[in-house]
Amino acid sequence: AEYNEATNAPITAKFHGAEIELYAPYISEMVRAEMVARYGYERAYNTGFKVFTNVESDVQAAAQTALVNNLHAYDMRHGYRGPQQQLWDFATQTALSHSEILEKLKPVKEIGPLLAAAVLEVSEQSATVLLKNGEQASLDWDNLKWARKYITRYRQGFPPKTAGDILNPGEQILLRKNDDGSYLLSQLPEASSALVSLDPNDGRIKAIVGGYSFEQSQYNRAVQAKRQVGSNIKPFIYSAALNNGYTLASILNDAPINQWDKSLGVAWRPKNSPAIYNGPIRIRRALAQSKNVISVRLLRGVGLQRTADHLLKFGFQNSDINRSESLALGSASITPLELARGMSAFANGGHLITPYFINEIQDSAGNVLFKTEPLLA
């Protein structure tokens, strides 16, 4: 009797594992790799270490949202690339049943905020869709009209006039959920991005996002992707000039440059973007307007080697600083984290900080094994 009573009693046990307060996979992977490097695989995974990072939950959440939203905004401006696949041909085939559609949607991988759906019906300025989770929803015109046809990265088709210009029944598409609960026609962005937020006074990383989706790619662009920095290099070029006798009131000629390159057998013609030239111009105005030719003239005035040596003071690696005049236009390849570190020197009065993401490491008993003691600017 006691046995039957016990087996029939409701289950009241509760899960007491650590609650996940914030989903931040890129920083989590950085912590995992650091712990394995410090303590080895077996100890890192089996000892019960507690690792406390500097990540601020609200800042990290805002960073992840901002990166995803802006990637989608950029992608939408370049046009709609069409459905992921055709589940049935609406012109020649009978529409599938809901159960058949859901079966076909099962293997479709949903990345980040993207939701798989099938188009059921298309009217003048709306469409009815069936989501992978079984929900049926309507896409109104406000959530469709952005979808001009993608032609090339520089060219899109005419603005659509009806939903039929965009969608057809039988297409498998991707959606995103709006804040008001409605759904927006979407697609997986072709571009990717990264974001770093750090405190310029002590180097603690407050937020870091390595890409659109960790599930899609574990490549952390914030710390691994060395990309040409473009005009982000200019504050460093100008600081080299100010450190070598120039002032903000110094005047240089904002005029086209045409120089023959003997080694390549071609003329090098750096241009402003847009191609507007103002003649004699003060340095302060040239920096504000991001004048390319002034950046080149400053590099020439300071000297290529002296400028490169100055850039190393901001923590950039010597191998990433190319020794050519294109350096003035940002041909150096630098990671977002390295760039944020360098920029911090302008914010903190000229001190080079060391970025860090682990604040403290404890063993399973709560004893402190490691604590970062940052140098303050």
From TrEMBL:
Keywords from the UniProt entry: Cell inner membrane, Cell membrane, Cell shape, Cell wall biogenesis/degradation, Glycosyltransferase, Membrane, Peptidoglycan synthesis, Transferase, Transmembrane, Transmembrane helix
Cross-referenced Pfam families: PCB_OB (PF17092), Transpeptidase (PF00905)
Domain Penicillin-binding protein OB-like: 80-191
GO biological process: cell wall organization; peptidoglycan biosynthetic process; regulation of cell shape
Residue ranges annotated for the Penicillin-binding protein transpeptidase domain, each copy included: 195-363
GO MF annotation list: penicillin binding; peptidoglycan glycosyltransferase activity
GO cellular component: outer membrane-bounded periplasmic space
Protein name per Swiss-Prot or TrEMBL: Penicillin-binding protein transpeptidase domain-containing protein
Species whose genome carries this gene: marine sediment metagenome
